[in-house]
Amino acid sequence: MKLDALQRAIGHRFSRIELLEQALTHRSFGSPHNERLEFLGDSVLNCVTAVALFGRFSELREGDMSRLRANLVRQETLHRLADGLKLGDYLHLGEGELKSGGHRRPSILADALEAIFAAVFLDAGFETAKAVIDRLYEASIASLDPARALKDPKTALQEWLQGKRMPLPRYSLADTRGEAHQQEFEVECEVAGLGLKTRGIGVSRRAAEQQSAQRALELLPKQ
Fold first, then answer.
1. The domains spanning 4-144 and 153-218 adopt the same CATH topology
2. Sequence spans of domains, the chain
């Protein structure tokens, strides 16, 4: 069955497989599509990440926890997790979206992942959805450094390099895809002092730069 591998990657086997199918269906393909599930999944994700942060960072104030949560649930993070699940291989997209590379578009992948969280919640309840989200986010939460994460990725990367007296990163536009009203940008971040090159994708050049910087941050030496 085509969805077996995805269910294994998610960590949940659906009793109502139609919920997973709907979560993977973009509105360009037809109905029922995943927009309502995305709405519900966003709320489930926010609740689960709030619980995780509350338990892990007992010293943080409400405002700081809110900013950390925003960092975890933003499109760039969801897109990275969706990429890890190879979610684009399973999406149901209309012909136009297929031709324009919709299976790689960060917003579509992020929305589909949120919809999957809702599908798990409806299929098996909150605790099961929580377990799925906790597992997918385990590495992200374990590696959180509040001092770094409370800054935007470009600022955090620049300050880290300045602290090590290393050259600042260079950002270059690697590719632009899609129609003028729905463009997608791919930016490369080069950290010459460490031999690092990472790429980010976003609906604006700035968003793509931030994602490439975030990926570079995740590869920095821990010391």
1. no
2. 4-144, 153-218
- Cα of first residue to Cα of last residue in the chain, in angstroms, is 45
* Domain 4-144 = CATH 3.30.70.920: no
Active centre residues (catalytic): 42, 114
Q: Give the count of beta carbons closer than 10 Å to the beta carbon of residue 1.
A: 7
What's the per-residue H, E or C state across the chain? CCCHHHHHHHCCCCCCHHHHHHHCECCCCCCCCCHHHHHHHHHHHHHHHHHHHHHHCCCCCHHHHHHHHHHHHCHHHHHHHHHHCCHHHHCECCHHHHHCCHHHCHHHHHHHHHHHHHHHHHHHCHHHHHHHHHHHHHHHHHCCCHHHHCCCHHHHHHHHHHHCCCCCCEEEEEEEECCHHHCEEEEEEEEHHHCEEEEEEECCHHHHHHHHHHHHHHCCCCC
Q: What is the CATH number of domain 153-218?
A: 3.30.160.20
Is the peptide bond preceding residue 146 cis, with omega within 30 degrees of 0? Answer: no
Q: What is the pLDDT of residues 57-115, one digit of tens each?
A: 988 889 889 988 988 998 888 998 999 999 999 999 998 888 888 888 888 999 999 99
Whether the model clears a pTM of 0.85, i.e. scores above it, the answer is no
